[in-house]
Amino acid sequence: MREPAEDLRSIAFCLERALEPAYRVKAFRTAAGVIDSLRRRELEARSAAGTLTDLPGIGKVTALVVTESLAGDEPVYLRRVRTLGDTAVSAGAAALRGALKGDCHTHSDWSDGGSPIAEMALAARALGHDYLVLTDHSPRLKVANGLSPARLRQQLDVVTELNEQLAGDGGRPLRVLTGIECDINLDGSLDQEPELLARVDLVVASVHSALRMPSEQMTARMVAAISNPHTDVLGHCTGRQVLGHGRGGKGRPESDFDAEVVFAACARFGVAVEVNSRPERLDPPKRLLRLAVEAGCDVAINTDAHAPGQLDWQVLGCERAYLCGVTVDRVVNARGVQELLSWTGRAGAAEGPER
Ligand SMILES: [Zn+2]
Ligand SMILES: [Zn+2]
User: Fold this and answer.
1) CB atoms within 10 A of CB 150
2) Ligand nearest to the CA of 183
3) 339 CA to middle of ligand 1, Å?
4) How far apart are CA 336 and CA 338, in angstroms?
5) Which of 148, 193, 220, 310 is most buried, taking the most CB atoms under 10 A from its CB?
6) 13-27, 141-155, 279-293, 302-316: which range is least confident on average?
């Protein structure tokens, strides 16, 4: 038996994976939420009477999806979007993807993501992950609704509660780990209270401002952040945006910095270099990723997902990592929860279900 809500969510997932804007996807996720609260019998009656669209949040398109789904057919809309954003990958990339156990850089609607934490968690579970690190933005990134210390504290409680629910719902084990994508301030300090940076499970440090700073200053700024004992992952290190993708597709050049110095610092301070899988970022570029590998850096192959379907982008990062000589033993998110937490130095705070 097909579940209409599941079909609606699958459509949303495929659209998100294809980098469709949130507003275009929202109707499907909203409709799924409405359908969740109704009994199948009522849905069938409404479908037969043509009154599905009387329900708030159900329009013509979503009503058709529900009707087709109730009849046991794959909705036409779902069939159309299923292969959107699908990319052929090499066997090496597929093997690397198969070894990944989680994602260390994701956003929810607490900052600039489009979906609640729980929806992100369920999508991560469906992808076979053991963990998902929630890394919403830090306070100074106001355009992305960055979390104040008070809101981050509140989020930590929400995650604890969600993990209890997930552990008890009979599904496969998935743990939401706490984290932050912390802005690297102009002076290289991190944009959050040290107490909170120590408390969360993982810290991604990223440059989001003054991307055109002269190389010498940018290098010093990045090295200061890398040497900060709270930093675990260096996010999208060049800040570039590839032409033709995403918001307007204008593209953005790489920041200037001394990559040898920055990657040597990552290797020395045990900070993983992120392979950012977002199609419009694909950061670092291959020549720099090769340099990071040569420098002996660990890497984290992350999606930087702002919607559930974007969690499926990891394979794009795996393709680049494979091409640049990254081996599984160097990938921090190919490690299990406990191993990851002992690497970030938060193993003492670990609790909850273990596989
Ligand atoms: Zn970022
Ligand atoms: Zn991010």
Assistant:
1) 9
2) 1
3) 25
4) 6
5) 310
6) 13-27
Please give the distance, rounded to the nearest whole angstrom, from the Cα atom of residue 96 to the centre of ligand 2.
Answer: 22
Is 222 exposed, middle or buried, given 0-12, 13-18 or 19+ CB atoms closer than 10 A?
Answer: buried
Residue 352, pLDDT > 50, answer: no
Question: Tokens 């091409």 belong to which residue?
Answer: 323
What type of residue is 139?
P
Residue 24's pLDDT is what? 82
Ligand with the closest atom to the CA of 103: 2
Helix (H) / strand (E) element for 134: namely strand 131-134
Examine the pLDDT at 130 and tell me if it is beyond 90. Answer: yes
Ligand with minimal distance to 136 CA: 2
Q: Between 88 and 200, whose confidence is greater?
A: 200
In the sheet that 202-206 helps form, which strands lie side by side, from edge to edge?
102-106, 131-134, 175-183, 202-206, 233-234, 272-276, 299-302
167 CA to middle of ligand 1, Å?
A: 30
| Ligand 2 geometric centre to CA of 59 (Å) | 32
Distance 236 CA to ligand 2 centre (A): 8
pLDDT above 80 for 246:
no
Cα-based distances in Å from 112 to 34, 59, 132, 206, 212 = 23, 26, 17, 15, 23
User: Separation of 205 CA from ligand 1 center, angstroms?
Assistant: 8
